[in-house]
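R.M. (postdoc): so does anyone remember the format we settled on? I'll just put the structure tokens first.
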């Protein structure tokens, strides 16, 4: 930021803290029943166009640390990159993703092998960060290769229910057509 914007921020925060400090003094006067202008706190908040809830949050923060900087709005949420996943875990996620595993497989692999607890959403975010959220055609092809070495090791099964009237007319039984093909020899 430039010097002009920093000084303008300081002026804004100083004037804001002075304004809120005067509201706090008036609030304490209402609590002690010595205020001439307001009888209730809701009237004070309405006059200064601030919600009661926000005012009480600022007042409690001021009670804990009675300095003017506690009166200006505070940064919310975690600091930048403080909750980022460890780089070693990110490297493991990248390696598993390049093997063609999806995010649920990666979570399962990390949980079983290294006892690392990580969510599927975190895995997805890591993959997006490194451009691995979509598999390339080469990775897809490598993942789908299933190598069988002998007959009977892997088979493909398909089942189809035949409609009544196709097989035997007026039959109350249901018939199925079952197909099994061996992957190695392609015998049905």
């Amino acid at each position: 930021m430039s010097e002009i914007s920093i000084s303008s921020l300081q002026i804004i925060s100083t004037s804001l803290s002075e304004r809120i400090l005067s509201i706090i003094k008036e609030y304490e006067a209402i609590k002690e029943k010595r205020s001439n202008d307001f009888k209730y706190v809701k009237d004070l908040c309405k006059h200064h166009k601030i919600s009661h809830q926000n005012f009480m949050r600022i007042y409690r923060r001021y009670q804990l640390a009675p300095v003017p900087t506690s009166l200006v709005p505070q940064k919310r949420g975690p600091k930048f990159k403080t909750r980022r996943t460890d780089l070693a875990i990110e490297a493991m996620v990248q390696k598993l993703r390049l093997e063609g595993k999806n995010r649920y497989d990666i979570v399962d692999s990390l949980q079983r092998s290294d006892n690392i607890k990580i969510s599927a959403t975190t895995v997805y975010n890591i993959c997006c960060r490194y451009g691995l959220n979509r598999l390339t055609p080469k990775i897809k092809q490598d993942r789908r290769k299933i190598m069988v070495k002998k007959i009977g090791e892997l088979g493909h099964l398909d089942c189809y229910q035949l409609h009544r009237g196709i097989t035997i007319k007026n039959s109350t039984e249901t018939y199925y057509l079952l197909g099994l093909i061996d992957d190695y020899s392609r015998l049905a």
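R.M.: ...and that's the designed sequence above, right after the tokens. Also worth knowing: The beta strands are 155-162, 175-182. Residues 3-31 form the longest helix (29 residues).
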